[in-house]
Amino acid sequence: MRLVEIYDTTLRDGTQGEGISFSAEDKVKIALRMDKMGFHYIEGGYPGSNPKDMEFFRQIRRHTLQRARITAFGSTRRPQMEAHADDNLNSLINSGVSTVTIVGKSWDFHVTHALNTTLEENLAMIRDSVAYLRSKGIEVIYDAEHFFDGFTANSEYTLSTLRAARDGGAKMLVLCDTNGGSLPGRIREVTALIIRELGVPVGIHCHNDCELAVANSLMAVEAGAVQVQGTVNGYGERCGNANLCSLIPNLTFKYDIETLPRENMAKITALSRYVSEVANLHPVASQPYVGNSAFTHKGGMHVSAITKNTSTYEHIEPEKVGNARRVLISELSGLSNMLYKYKEMNLDLVVQKEETREILEHIKELEHQGYQFEGAEGSFELMLRKLKQNYREPFKLENLRIIVEFKENSSVQTEAIIKLSVGDRLVHTAAEGNGPVNALDNALRKALEEFYPCINTMQLIDYKVRVLDERDGTGAVVRVLIESGNGKRNWGTVGVSENIIEASWQALVDSMAYGLLKSDETAAGEKDQDI
Question: pLDDT tens digits, residue range 381-393?
């Protein structure tokens, strides 16, 4: 089976994306995770540019990697300077890595206008830099910057830059679509020509400015490239780099090419979300293969089909990449959506077609009023249980009062006073907060913690308010979506009202009730296992 090496540059090129910054410790954690996945190369950073990247190389040396080779990134020597005297090249050597990637100019326009040197001097810079690193026993990968633009402008000169790197001793010549403006057919044509002309291993490094980085990388592989460079989640400068979370599954499952070990492919969704978490960025739900919506079905016709055969609307089994199938409930739902959700939630229901249809119509009416159950499956399951089972509410509101005290030149004081029935007990308590919703949350927790200690493990993760018709101004209906979690799972709940406090209360109550419901189910399951 043909092998294509996976070269990750999330920790260097990926950090050039807007809003992305990793500490040296973050980089080490991500690198170790990638090593366990089976990545071939992990580019740790640019040691000549900042102390943080050099710190990464110091820290990573303390770990024994299973498969990956850590690489340092740098550029060719400066014009009119001996390679051995160049600080950048020596910082690469001092990083302690056994593989270095250096970037050089392929486009004559860049040589004369950016480097301000001659075309011949640029060739010498490339050749000398590679040869110097090789003399130190270091494996060299050469990144030909702006290669495709340079080839279009002056193919003979661009080829001569690759020959200079080859003659210096580079192991791999990587063709870079740095501006991200090339088209797939052109990438394939030029890559095939380079392989024929030079007879050396070729890699590909694409940017996503035309949203073609993955397609362009695949075309280069079809032409004979043996290494692909990219980043997890496509992070990178401007529009990003080739997304390895799409590129790797495409190579593995669509081309049947060896990339990562097959047994590790089911971990790629977890890797994607882990890197998002460390980067403090929300995962993109619509991302192919690994996104939360990648195998999510909403239309009734689609759900009806996948209940018969998932291949009708899925090009691959989600489990192969560690993802999961989801079915949503909305105004677009059909009977199949409802039946699927009953089964998914393990609801012990005697499903009558007419009753289910009535529930479905009720849901559609609620969505017409402004409810949205796509991101609020906690509220959705509670509603089903209330309609179809002997559901016992864990608590009941008797009275609620919120006091907001505002004085000029003083901080705002907010207090929630709450009276709840829990079984046959009446609880009356109060709590302050930095706003009405926070005060509500604090008061509710204070009232319930005696009866349900597990409530202390639950926390509000996200709180969103959406005005449904802004034309009504301050009297508009609002929808509140709350995401909560307990360290083991997350769930969403929803509330809708003209009063933002009431909408928040609805979502907050459902959040607590659903969390308690799932805690009871988990405890019951663990008890059964003990028996």
Answer: 888 788 766 678 8
